Amino acid sequence: GVQCVVVGIDSYFDAQSGHYQVKQFTGDESRTRTTAWHTLDWIQEAQQRGAGEIVLNVMNQDGMRQGYDLEQLALARYVCKVPLIASGGAGAMAHFRDAFTVADVDGALAASVFHKGIIPIPELKRWLRTQGVAIRD
User: Fold this and answer.
1) Is 53 helix (H, G, I), strand (E, B) or coil?
2) Residue 124 phi, psi (nearest 5)
């Protein structure tokens, strides 16, 4: 199905313009560029092109462990009609809960908190269930 085609979007909040912009070539700082796309417009375009799922990485938050950008995720949820995965910022179990309950995302991606054993996945899943978040086994 269409869900097997996942589009990853690296989004950056530009405080000067007040806009979320899509970045490209983010794996290499010397090549990273801001595109002409505003993030919400690109989410809509990606869906029109057939994306079955969107992973939205908020670069300002990525690796900071200060929480997901709930404002941007909530705006994205409004225009995103396919599964939306939050990425960038998880540092505590409450950050995952907030992504699900405040921004209404379908999934939450994290890296360092799992790689470094800061949050054990089974413990997170148990805790999220106690918070009323539907979690698969």
Assistant:
1) strand
2) -60, -45
Residue 118 confidence (pLDDT): 94
Whether residue 100 contacts residue 108, with contact meaning beta carbons closer than 8 Å, is answered with yes
Do residues 10 and 58 lie in contact, with contact meaning Cβ atoms separated by under 8 Å? no
- For 120-130, the pLDDT digits (tens) are 999 999 999 99
CATH 3.30.420.40 for the 2-130 domain, yes or no: no
| Long-range contacts, stretch 67-72, CB < 8 angstroms, 24+ apart | 67/91, 67/92, 67/94, 67/95, 67/98, 68/95, 68/98, 68/99, 68/103, 68/108, 69/13, 70/98, 70/99, 70/102, 70/103, 72/11, 72/13, 72/20, 72/39
Neighbours of 11 (CB within 10 A): 28
Query: Considering the entire predicted model, what is its pTM?
Result: 0.91
Domain ranges of the chain: 2-130
Quick check: 89 and 105 in contact, CB under 8 A? no
Quote the CA–CA distance of 129 and 68 in Å, as a whole number. 19
- Paired strand residues for 11: 22, 58
User: What is the residue whose two structure tokens read 């002409």?
Assistant: 36
